[in-house]
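Researcher: Please translate sequence to structure tokens.
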Amino acid sequence: MALAPKFAGHKLTAAGASPQAIHTVELYLDYVCPYSKKLFNTIYTEVLPLAEKKYPGKVQFIFRQQIQPWHPSSTLVHEAGLAVLKLAPNAFYPFSAALFAKQTEYYDVSVVHEARNQTYERLAKIAGSVGVDEVAFLKLLWVDDKPNSEGGLNIGNGVTNDLKLLVKAARLVGVHVSPTVIFNGIVENSISSGWTTDQWDEYLQKNIE
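Model: Translation complete:
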């Protein structure tokens, strides 16, 4: 699936990759899913360096933000990811790593007594830790407690429209849960979040020409 320029920060490309002949691994991940965290950490810290060394110019990884609405905070943390993409696309992966490291702080029990904007304030601190402007970040996410100029009450925030696009994209390919991995446009059910780097290496050897 094509990647819109506004979501270019989702792409994690091995150095020297050629867009004319490149394999694509799409990772549908949820920030509040422990299995997504495990898969992200393996890819980000181990598999990408391996791919850059052994398969230069042949593979790219795309982080697809997968909102799982049965965890209400999933929407909020993914809005945070979108705010980072708008403000500092190159900070998206460092932000994601930092957020995954603190993911239990955004589990159901951790946010149940917290107002929405309070959650955004905590997320702003994570964004700030990777160099994102916290004030601009909060401005994008903040939801006012007053109707807009037209009297609207479901006013959303500065990333609502982008969030809708992510949901549409996942629906289009039938992704329901995280993590889901798609290789060159096909869902790859054999891949597990528990895979080691050696297992990823074996898979890439078999499937990258």
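Researcher: Any highlights?
Model: The first strand starts at residue 11 and ends at 13.
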